[in-house]
Amino acid sequence: MSDFAEFHEELCSVASDLLAKDREVEWAVLVDAGWTGLEVPENVGGAGATFTETALILRQMGRAASANHYLGSAALTVAALQHAPGELLAAVADGSSRFAVVTDEFAIESGKLCGRAGFVPDAVGADRLLIPVGDGVAVVPASALTVSAQPVVDETRTLATVTADGAIPEKIVEFEGASALLDRAAVAIAVDSLGIAEQMLSATVDYVKVRHQFGRPIGSFQAVKHACADMLVAIEVSRQLVADAVAAIADGADAAIPAAMAKSYTCSATVDVAGKAMQLHGGIGYTWESGIHTYLKRAALNRSWFGSPATQRKRLSQRYH
């Protein structure tokens, strides 16, 4: 356990340093860092790690509000290609082909695809799309589909609408089903939100220590202390829920309940934490220079993406009926 803890600490440190250099990280940089192949088996060029390690990277990306293709082209792709031929997974690890994943299921008839999905991460500029079709996932050249950029409030994400109107897949590979992929996506977003919340608390605590009013740091005022304490409590609860959900994904267990719990609570709490951070920064918190708006917008998108809190709570209630 201590060996893993040391490795995880080093992985987080390296990720933090790399992501701090530039908010926009090129795909080639992610490939060179070895992150795209973390969950790819060693025999096809990957690191043979688990979703636990992928989650550490996603968390640091949330802390940095990083703009890159890791979510759609690596974290989700490896799950969609779990039972695919080795050459496809090798292409993910070495970055020779950038994939993107559609989580909505499309129809297929006579070998042709038909369907439409919105808010698909990292589809713009991808070489191939992975689309669930029944018991399989279709590998489709992006050129055979209509991929239209879909602007959202969060400028750190690249989303698209993907439309198939008679596209012919390169191949269809075995797939465990869209529900497990959606659980992974929900947990990935919860992990990202946790990173956002942690960064917002850290930035706020640093600020209230140096910002003075009436001759004393504003962090010494009771109302500010209470607000920071509320932020910390929300983060601690989120950490436990996210840890349980990540463990379920990594262990290959049924992650439906822990994923819904982590996604609904963490993403909602993070919007509140980012909002408090903006308030506690005072007037400067509302300026472009502070950068807090970037985190608040990302948190707002995360809250609704891959299932809003209300949708996730509905899933939970149905499981317990």
Oligomeric nature of the chains = single chain
Coarse morphology: globular
Strand order of the largest sheet: 1-4-5-8
Class from helix and strand fractions: alpha+beta
Largest sheet: 4 strands, mixed
Using the 3D structure, state the CATH architecture of the largest domain. Answer: Beta Barrel
Number of helices: 11
Helicity level, as a percent range?
Answer: 40-55%
Instruction: Provide the succession of SSEs.
Output: HHHHHHEEEEEEEEHEEHHHH
What does this structure look like?
With 321 residues, the protein is an alpha+beta fold. The chain folds into two domains: 2-174, Butyryl-CoA Dehydrogenase, subunit A, domain 2; 178-319, Butyryl-CoA Dehydrogenase, subunit A, domain 3, CATH 1.20.140. It has eleven helices and ten strands. The strands form three sheets. The chain has a four-stranded mixed beta sheet. Strands 2-3-7-6 form a four-stranded antiparallel beta sheet. Helix 9 runs antiparallel to helix 10. 46% of the residues are buried. The model has no long low-confidence stretch (mean pLDDT 94).
